[in-house]
């Protein structure tokens, strides 16, 4: 970089005051080519810096999605710096709502790395009874398995028995463990524990 700066300073000094006397055509063309090469190099550096800034902003802010239907609502937030996903669901999810929710969660998961932690608050969800929802539950579970998710912690006090059994069966089949806790504070405490000391 110091060599480049020195070279550019030399060229600038040569043409300062628009003095062109004594400069041959070949020398001028050579200086022009050097300047063009330098402009191209600086443009590449600027492009790299802009991409890096976007990456850092994404790490800081994370990705999030919120949604609602007539009977259900959800909020999904990915924290890329902590490599963690937080999900909150409430109400009754029909097939359409489950589809929208699963698409949103897959979008946010794209911003996380392998081995992420997942915290899901479904303490205010209601039983729907639509077995077609299993398709979307399986879609999310398979994506979590592909991400090699580290821990799935579920705040599930009040979760209807039928829904719990359906979710547990799908996750068990795929080979994922769900840790049930009663509150968000308990979920935070569990996240602080080493994975090897967890109890199912």
What's the assembly state of these chains?
Answer: single chain
Structural shape: elongated
> What is the averaged pLDDT score?
85
DSSP summary, beta strand count: 6
Q: Helicity, in percent?
A: 40-55%
How large is the share of residues in beta strands?
15-25%
Structure explained in plain terms:
This protein is α/β, with parallel strands linked by helices. Strands 1-2-3-4-5-6 form a six-stranded mixed sheet. Strand 1 and strand 2 form a beta hairpin. Helix 3 packs parallel to helix 4. It is elongated. The mean pLDDT is 85. It comes from Desulfoluna limicola.
Note the main attributes of this structure.
21% strand; 52% helix; STAS domain-containing protein; six-stranded mixed β-sheet; 200 residues
Task: Present the secondary structure layout.
Elements: H1 2-15, H2 25-61, E1 63-68, E2 72-79, E3 84-92, H3 95-109, E4 117-126, H4 133-146, E5 151-155, H5 161-174, E6 178-181, H6 184-192
Parallel strand pairs: 3-4, 4-5, 5-6
Antiparallel strand pairs: 1-2, 2-3
